[in-house]
Design a protein that fits this description.
The chain is α/β, with parallel strands linked by helices and 198 residues long. The chain is built from 7 helices and 8 strands. Strands 1, 2, 3, 4, 5, 6, 7 and 8 form an 8-stranded mixed sheet that branches.
Amino acid sequence: MKQAIGKLGLRLFGWTMADPIPPERRFVLIAYPHTSNWDYVFMILSAWAYGTPLHWLGKQELFKSPLGPFFRWTGGIPVDRSKAGNLVAQAIERFAAEPDFILVVPPSGTRKDQPYWKSGFYQIAVGAGVPINLATMDYLHRRAGYGPNYMPTGNPKVDMDHIRSYYAVTHGKYPERRQPIRLRLEDESASPPPSLEA
C-alpha cells in the first residue's frame, strides 16, 4: 500500500524518482539541501515509491504523544537522548543487529542558519562501517530519491570534499536558505597539535 501511495503522491506533485536504489540496502541516508518542511514529505513519498522502509531516530517523548503510532508507521525509532553520544551508539547497535537497515539522519539538523552540519550521520556511518547515501531532493528538476553510496574513509576533510562536490548542483525549494556543507570535525582535524613547550 505504501508503494502505491508513494508513486501516486509523486505523480500528483509532478515529481519523478531519482537513481535506482543501491543493491546494498544498509546505509546512512542524508539529503541536501534542507530548506523546507516539504522535504520530509517528498523523502517519505520517494522511499515508499521505491518500496524500501526508511528509519529515523526521534526522542522517545515524541512517541508517547497521540502521533506516536503515526511516527512509528513512517519508520520512527524512539531513542533515549538523555546521555551524550547515546543516539550515535544506539544507531550503531541497530546496524549491527539488522542486515538491512536504512537510517535517515538530517545532517543540517535544522533549517536555521548554522555554520556547521551536525556530525551524527558521519559518526554513525564510520562507527557502523556502512556507506553514506547521497540522496537527491532537487526542486528544480522535481526529482527525489536515492543517490550513490559513498563509503567514508574516516578522514573528515576528504569525505566532506566528496559530499560537497556531489551536492554542488542540487536545488532546494528555497535556495537562499541553503546551508554550508561543513563539519566542525574538519576544522578540528586541521588544527595544529598543542605545543609541548613549558
